[in-house]
Amino acid sequence: MPSTIDPRRQRELVRLLEKMGLEQTKLERDIPSGFDWLLVDQALVHPSFSTTYNNDQLEFIGDSVLKLAVSLFLREKYGDKKVGVLSALRAHLVSDKTLAKIARTYELKKYIVLSEAMRNDSQNVQGQEQTVLANSLEALMAAIYTITGDVKFIRRWLDPHMQNFAEALLEIPALGNYKLALLELTQRRWKRLPEYRNVATSVKNNIFFVEVWFDDRCWGQGQGKSIKAAQQEAAAIALDQMQKEIQI
Amino acid sequence: MPSTIDPRRQRELVRLLEKMGLEQTKLERDIPSGFDWLLVDQALVHPSFSTTYNNDQLEFIGDSVLKLAVSLFLREKYGDKKVGVLSALRAHLVSDKTLAKIARTYELKKYIVLSEAMRNDSQNVQGQEQTVLANSLEALMAAIYTITGDVKFIRRWLDPHMQNFAEALLEIPALGNYKLALLELTQRRWKRLPEYRNVATSVKNNIFFVEVWFDDRCWGQGQGKSIKAAQQEAAAIALDQMQKEIQI
After folding, report:
1. Smallest CA–CA distance from B96 into chain A, residue
2. Hey, which bits of chain A come out as E strands?
3. Which residues in chain A touch residue B56, judged by CB atoms under 8 angstroms apart?
4. pLDDT per position as a tens digit, A188-245
5. Known catalytic residue at B18
6. Whole-number pLDDT of residue A248
7. Fewest CB within a 10 Å sphere: which of A68, A129, A133, B54?
8. Could you tell me if B73 and B155 are in contact, meaning their C-beta atoms sit under 8 angstroms apart?
9. Which CATH number does A7-169 carry?
10. Does the CB of A174 have a partner CB in chain B at under 8 Å?
11. pTM score, two decimals?
12. CATH class for domain A178-247?
């Protein structure tokens, strides 16, 4: 575990952050306790290089820094859209694929320290490079957030990228359509379709209640002012539930 | 969309935040632009009550505020543990079940505004109340974060709860064991087991490479200093991948 940073490495990292619009003089002025360049270094050390000094814990934090930054951006910029659309946008914007593309604009690969075996591997194994780039960028976000305590130092450079990707995604018609997403999932994975059942209607309040069934199991219940709205809600819950069962 | 808050409602919300250790006088002193009690009100309005003035967008933000607060807490408190264990802890700590338990300690239900139909429903439909409580607490976190711009106003009251839950979870032997988690998932959902294949060994670097297969498809590749470590890595990637396919 190094206690100081090599001056040459620090100059490299200063250049990287400057490419991201974070100037050394301003950073060091804004952070009275001192800008911790060693933590930035650690954020770019892949676990294959060292099992004790690497970015695995920073990546763990970075995942949530990213999600918060993107959520704040989406609410500010697209607050007039339905939450279903914002969620669908977010799922795409925080993906490894998007992150790797952003990382490439800063030539992040040049700054990442990894084992030689992993370096060869990441050139040969499909998807490996994308994961390394995405994880390193997340870890870098965590380092910047941990040092500054403020997401504005992330959003300053991340927002313009996200804006570009979001605009492209908004051209996709199915975005935020949970029924379609659920259908595509069950069809692709299990070659079967979910079934919607109308279970009740409250005439007084004009509310419809539906359930969505798959594989002899009710995966979600929804309610709404129309059958379509109730089905969308049920499908959203079903998707979320399937995701949770996969996660645990 | 109300432009001011009813004084009686504000007094209620002041009491709620005081229960969480956030005193009105201190909050209003710390936030020079004024503490936005109307946003706290909105955080506790369920979408069933109003389609235009409700907490759905705040909940969308709250989800990531929660994840960040919990991640920072885990790294600070359990930084000596493996990231796999931290991830497993986090998945449990941010669940609706955990959040609803925390919400109940503040009697959050008393402060939530929802339609009468939904109020009856949440008493009768299993799991409905838990979801309402969890979502409202997330929205409340988003409101507090948006107003203060600092997670410390969340962590002050959230950390002690998370500490209690984390201590209980750490007694579970399988926590952070991806191989076991993957096995349980595929066994439960599809009644079949994943298969691990040793694909290469780098004698020079003493590194093992394995793949995990399920359903005629390679779901993850792992490498490590032992076959067991490589299998754990492959299983973690496979779990993550299955989760992503469910999500999109």
Report:
1. A244
2. 195-202, 207-214, 217-224
3. 83
4. 788 888 999 988 877 666 778 899 999 888 998 888 778 888 898 889 888 877 866 6
5. no
6. 43
7. A129
8. yes
9. 1.10.1520.10
10. no
11. 0.77
12. alpha beta
